[in-house]
Request: fold
Amino acid sequence: MTGLELSLRRTVVWYGGLGLLTGRVMRSLALPPKYFRLILREIESMGVQSLGVALTAAIFTGMVFTIQSAVNMARFGAETYVGPVAALAILRELGPVLTAILVGGKVASGITAELGSMKVTEQIDALRTLGVNYVKRLVVPRVLASLVVFPLLTVLTDAVGVLGGMVIMFVERGADMYAYWNTMTYWVVPKDFLTGIGKSVFFGAVVTLIGCYNGLSTEGGTEGLGRATTATVVHVTMGVIVSDFFLTKLFLTLFY
Reply:
């Protein structure tokens, strides 16, 4: 078997395994009450501990995008529309995508490391022996927590990014903040905000499932665990970027 064939086979196996895990998660969504504390724990782990990273990236991204837009749009006498342009970019794309890549990479790699260490130390096999549904115990709470955490983080990053853009326009370009806000709110409508939130829900599920699958499929001891954790960051980044294109096409078709 050539290297290309081997690589293609591994890719097909990975996507097939991820799809099978998704199907098992869908069938195991009904959790017993005692598992809800696991969801709360994962919400804290994913959300609270990732808040600093998300908000720092959001405010500086909002400021950079806004000031770059202002400098270039001033050439055409369109500096008045910097607010709507920056807000639309943040709400539709930058907020959900940056949150998914930065927070998702951190969260998914942590999940892979945790589940991978359980796999190589045969704790997963022990759960199976005891008759425990390890997907319902280890995967479903993380997926459900991500469906809550990622939209909430996206809302916060949207607000901080837009606010950062407004402040930098006032400081660097002397813009009237009242006029800036009025122009922005005139052109930006609720569906612009909701499409970004819709993306974040999907991104949260994708990121968590990739982290869980790579952890559960870890082989080769601690060396294999390192490879799986590294691969998770790459898979999450590519998964978010590729799925963002198709989600954008879908939302533009449905709502615009």
Summary: Residues 195 and 251 are 7 Å apart (CA to CA). The chain has a mean pLDDT of 89. The first helix runs from residue 3 to 27. The chain is about 85% helix and 0% strand.
